[in-house]
Every structure is written in structure tokens, then in C-alpha cells.
Amino acid sequence: MTVWMCVVCGWVYDEAAGLPDHGIAPGTRWADVPGDWRCPECGVGKADFVMTGL
To answer: Which of 1, 23, 24, 42 pairs with 16 at a CA distance of 20 to 30 A?
Structure first.
């Protein structure tokens, strides 16, 4: 499981935790997050995230 961070606002997506409130189950890999998903803090797309940890 990896952690991804928004380069615009710093919000973090942790694959282990997922984002259940937004329909993304715990354990969902970044590659499996829908392509049209947006950062819940600032609204940018997946292209503006970088892997920050394993």
C-alpha cells in the first residue's frame, strides 16, 4: 500500500485507508481510483498527485 499527496494543497490519499465517505473502499490502489476522481480539498485531478510513501 502506498500514500499519494496532492502537490497543490498537500492532501493525502492513503491506499490502506481508502476514502469510504467518497465511495473508495479501504485497500483501493491508486491505479484503481477512477480517472475522473478529484482531490476533496482543492479539486485537482489524479495527475497532480505524487507518491510519498510505501
So the answer is: 42
Number of domains making up the chain: 1
Burial zone of 21 (CB within 10 Å; 0-12 exposed, 13-18 middle, 19+ buried):
exposed
CA-CA distance, 22 to 53, in Å (whole number)? Answer: 22
Which residue is associated with the grid cell 505524487? 50
pTM of full prediction above 0.85: yes
* Domain at 26, CATH number: 2.20.28.10
